Fold:
Amino acid sequence: MDTQILTPKKNLPASRVIQKIKGNKPGPTVLFFAGIHGNEPAGVNALARVFEDISAKENNLNGTIYGILGNLKALAEGKRFVDVDLNRLWTKANIKMVSNKKALLEEEKELLDLLDLLKEITKSENGPFYFIDYHTTSSKTLPFITINDSMINRKFAIQFPVPIVLGIEEHLDGPLLSFINQLGYVAIGFESGQHQDPEAVSNSVAFTYLTLVAAGVIGKSDLEDYDKYKMQLKNASNSVNDIFEVVYLHKITGMDVFKMLPGYESFQKINIGTHLATNNSEPVYASFDGMLFMPLYQNQGSDGFFIIRKIPAFALTLSAFLRKIKFDNLFTLLPGVKWEHRDKEILRVDLKVAKYMAKPFFHLLGYRVRYLDGQYLRMYNREKASKKKMYSNEEWW
Ligand SMILES: [Zn+2]
Structure:
C-alpha cells in the first residue's frame, strides 16, 4: 500500500489534503470533505483518526481515498465562516463571477482552491467517484444523511442505518453537494451530531468505515469492527431509518432577530401551532405537523428551522419506477410545460397555464424545483445529470 501526504501545489495550502491513501488494487476514488464550516471540527478529527488507523493497518485496499479540509481559515478561527458561507458559493454563475474577480473574500479563495483540487483529482484518478461531506448541527440531533434526490444517491445512501433527509438543497443556494451532483457523481452529506459532542466524532468515524465498505474500498470481512460501527450508528439514530422530505423552512432574512425557544431537537415531533421561536420578538408557530429539523442555536446562519415528514414507502417505489421509464418525457405534451434547453435537463413550467402541476409530483420524478418568479417554476432534472454508467457494475446499484 502506498501512503503519501500530498505535496502542496503552488496555491494549495499544505494542509488542505489531510491525507491520500492509494490501495494495491484498482477500485473507486472516495473523497471525504470535512470542515466546510469552520465551527464543525468533528469530521476533521474523525478523518484524521481513520486515515491514521487505515494506513497503519496495511489493509488490502481497493482504489484511492482522500481526506480533504474545507474552510481552512474558518477552521483556524473556529467560526462557521470568515466572510461568507463557503457552502453557499457553488453555483455555476457564482463560480464564474469569482473566477473573474480581483479582490477575493476569504471563502472565495477557498472555493477556487477546492475547485482546483477537485479538477485535479477527477482528472488523475479513476472512477467510480464518491463524495462524502461531513457536518454537525447547533442543536441536538440524531445522525442523518442529506442527499439531492437522484437514484444513484438514494441507492448508495440506503446502505447506512441512519435516517435520510431529501430536499434541503432545494431551499439553499450553492451547497457543495449540489455542485458535485450536477457533475453526475454520488454525493452524500453526513450530519453526525451536535458541534462539540464527542459522539459526533465517533459517529463520523463509524460512517467513514461503513462508506469504505459500501464503496468497495475494503471488504466487509477485512474490517473486523464492521458490525460494531453499524450498531453504533443504528443506536445513535434510535433505529430511525426512514426517508424524510423537507416541507418547510423558516428563512431568516436581513436584520431579523431570530431566536429558537430553548430545548428543541432535530427529529422531535411537533404539531401545527407549536410555539417554536421568536422573530423580532414576534412568536413563530409551526405551520405544519411533522418533525422539527435543524433548529438553529447559533448566531451565524440564515436557516431558522426546517419541518420534515416521512415519505411513505409507496411513494418511494412509485418514484423509482417513474424515473426508470422516464415518465417526464411526456410532460412537454402538457400545456404550459416545456424544456428550457434541448438537453432536457431543465423544465420550465408556466404556473398561469399549468396550475394543476404540484411540486411533490415533480419531486417524485427527481426534479429539484426552484421558483423563477411569480409565474414560472424552473426544474432541474437530477437523473439526467447522473453518471449512472459509472456505477452500473457496483454491488449497491
Ligand atoms: Zn455544516
In short: The first strand starts at residue 2 and ends at 4.
